[in-house]
Automatic annotation (TrEMBL):
It comes from the Bacteria. It is found in: Periplasm. This is C4-dicarboxylate-binding periplasmic protein. GO terms for biological process: transmembrane transport. Keywords: Periplasm, Signal. NCBIfam families: TRAP_S1. One of its GO terms (cellular component) is periplasmic space. Pfam families: DctP.
Length: 351
C-alpha cells in the first residue's frame, strides 16, 4: 500500500512539473501604438511572439496592454517599470534627460545615420562596447534591458516656409528635449514638448515648428496646422528602450526568462526595417495629404552641422563630469558610424 501511494504521489508531482504555468504581464508605453513604430512593434511583434514561444515551452502568457499613456505617460514609463506598476515598458529615453542622460548619445551626434538599420546597429555596437549603458538599467532602476528601438530620420516641420538657417532666427520650435540644442545652435527658440501636445500647440501658435520624423508628423496630423515639411536629415536614432522590472523577471522560470530576452533581441533586430517602412509611410502620407515637402540645400545642411561640431564633445564632457563614461560612449558611437562607412557632413572629435 505504501509503495502504491508513493507511486501515485510521484505521478502527481511529475504531472505538476510539466503542466502549463500561467503568467500575466502588464506592458505599456506613453505613446499610442499606431503613430509610434516602437509601440506598434510591442503590440504586433513582441507580445504575440512571446505568447507563441511561451506556449511552445508549456507556459501560458497573458498580456495586459496599456499604450497611449493609459497607465504611464512618456516621461513616467521608466519609473513605472522600476516600481512595478508596469512589468514591461517601452519608452524614448529622450524623456529622461536627467536619469538617462548618457543613453541619449545618438542625439549628441546629429546628421548621423540616415537609414534606421544603420542607426539601430550603431546604437547596439555602442551598448556592446560600453556595458555600463546596459548595467545602469539594473543597477539604478531595477530593470532588465530587453531590446532597443528608435525613431526614423528626423526632419523639420513648420507652419511657415523657410530655406536658410537665418530664416529660423527667433522661431519657436518644439522637440523632445535632448535634440533641442540642434535648434538652439541654429538660432531658433527651443521648446520642450511631447507628441500629444503638438497639434493644439501648433494650431494656437504656442510654437511654430516641430523637430520630428515624418511618421510622427503625419501620424499625429501635424501637417494640418503646420503644412511645410523640410527634409534636413538630422538622422535616425536608436534611442528607445524596452525594459522589464527586475524583480518580476527574476521571479520567472529560466526558460521564460530566455524567451523574453530572445524576443527582445528579435524586437530590436526588426526595428530598423520597421522604422524605414514607417518613414516611407509618413512621407507618402504627407504627400498625399497635400503637405509641402522640400529638401534643405547641401550647403545649408553643412553649415548647420558645422555650428554643432563641438556638441558631441560638450555632451561627452558633461557626462564625464556626472561620473558617467561619456567620452568612452561618444567615441564608441562615432567609431561605429565610421566603421559602417557612414559619412557625416562634419567630423566630430572627442578629446
Amino acid at each position: 500500500m505504501m509503495k502504491t501511494m508513493t507511486t501515485a504521489m510521484t505521478l502527481i508531482v511529475s504531472a505538476g512539473m510539466v503542466s502549463a504555468d500561467d503568467f500575466t504581464f502588464r506592458i505599456g508605453a506613453g505613446h499610442p501604438s499606431a503613430p509610434a513604430a516602437y509601440v506598434s512593434d510591442m503590440e504586433n511583434f513582441f507580445v504575440p511572439e512571446v505568447i507563441k514561444r511561451a506556449e511552445a515551452a508549456g507556459h501560458t502568457v497573458t498580456f495586459v496592454q496599456a499604450y497611449g499613456g493609459s497607465i504611464a505617460g512618456v516621461a513616467e514609463t521608466l519609473e513605472s517599470v522600476q516600481n512595478g506598476v508596469l512589468d514591461i515598458g517601452g519608452y524614448c529615453m529622450c524623456f529622461e534627460p536627467a536619469k538617462l542622460f548618457l543613453h541619449n548619445f545618438p542625439y549628441y551626434a546629429p546628421f548621423g545615420p540616415q537609414d534606421s538599420n544603420d542607426a539601430i546597429a550603431a546604437a547596439r555596437a555602442t551598448y556592446d562596447a560600453v556595458p555600463w549603458l546596459t548595467e545602469q538599467f539594473e543597477n539604478e532602476y531595477s530593470q532588465v534591458l530587453l531590446g532597443l528601438h528608435g525613431w526614423d530620420n528626423y526632419h523639420l516641420g513648420t507652419t511657415e516656409p523657410w530655406d536658410t538657417i537665418e530664416d529660423l532666427q527667433g522661431v519657436k520650435i518644439a522637440g523632445a528635449g535632448p535634440n533641442l540644442p540642434w535648434i538652439e545652435f541654429a538660432g531658433g527658440v527651443p521648446v520642450q514638448s511631447t507628441f500629444p501636445e503638438g497639434y493644439l500647440s501648433l494650431s494656437t501658435g504656442v510654437y511654430d515648428g516641430w523637430l520630428i520624423l515624418p511618421s510622427a508628423y503625419f501620424g499625429f496630423k501635424y501637417h494640418e496646422p503646420s503644412p511645410h515639411y523640410k527634409l534636413v536629415g538630422f538622422g535616425a536614432v536608436g534611442i528607445n528602450a524596452l525594459t522589464m522590472n527586475q524583480r518580476k523577471f527574476d521571479s520567472l522560470p529560466a526558460d521564460l526568462q530566455t524567451i523574453l530576452m530572445e524576443v527582445g533581441a528579435a524586437y530590436e533586430a526588426q526595428a530598423g526595417e520597421s522604422l524605414n517602412a514607417r518613414q516611407a509611410w509618413g512621407l507618402n502620407g504627407l504627400t498625399e495629404a497635400g503637405a509641402t515637402i522640400t529638401e534643405l540645400s547641401a550647403d545649408t545642411r553643412t553649415a548647420w552641422a558645422q555650428s554643432l561640431v563641438g556638441f558631441p564633445n560638450q555632451q561627452a564632457k558633461e557626462a564625464d563630469g556626472r561620473g558617467m563614461p561619456g567620452t568612452e560612449v561618444l567615441n564608441a558611437y562615432l567609431s561605429a558610424i565610421s566603421d559602417a562607412g557612414i559619412e557625416m557632413p562634419v567630423e566630430y572629435a572627442i578629446d
